[in-house]
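Researcher: Structure for this, please.
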Amino acid sequence: MKKKAQEEMVGFVLIMLVVAVVFLVFLGIYLRQATNAEPTSSAEISQFLEAAFEITTECGTPFPRKLRDVILMCDTGIANCPLTGEDPCVILKETMENVIKSSWVFAENSPTKGYVLDITRETTTGPVSVLNEPIFGGEISCRQYRSAAKPLPDGITMKLEICL
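Model: Predicted structure, token format:
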């Protein structure tokens, strides 16, 4: 009788161990999924664009110009930045690519897969791209995205779409 009770106790402990291992596996899966960042919101993108306008660039040493001014320079066709001689459109593109990539991670396992940035000026015939083409990064063929647009003077709008 005593041996039978011991066998039942061992069986009970083994069942509890199996249940505990299964519980830990499910807990690990749940925590791994919970640590992924939340998808980017349109409000976050809007705030990002607002802040991006105030970034200082390499254009115009010794008095660096803000990105807002470089966008206007690129749109008006100013060929070179004062003193540096660099094309403001090239500086604009490089600056925005660097800032976007430092703000979000674009990867297959990331909540954000890619982005499209377009800066346009409204004309009588419709919108015209200031940079001649949008800036693409990461995977841009997505089913869902978040976007925001911010206006500048002279009918210029900066729009950023983040692919989820």
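Researcher: Any notable elements?
Model: Residues 34-39 have pLDDT under 50 and may be disordered. DSSP finds four helices and five strands in the chain.
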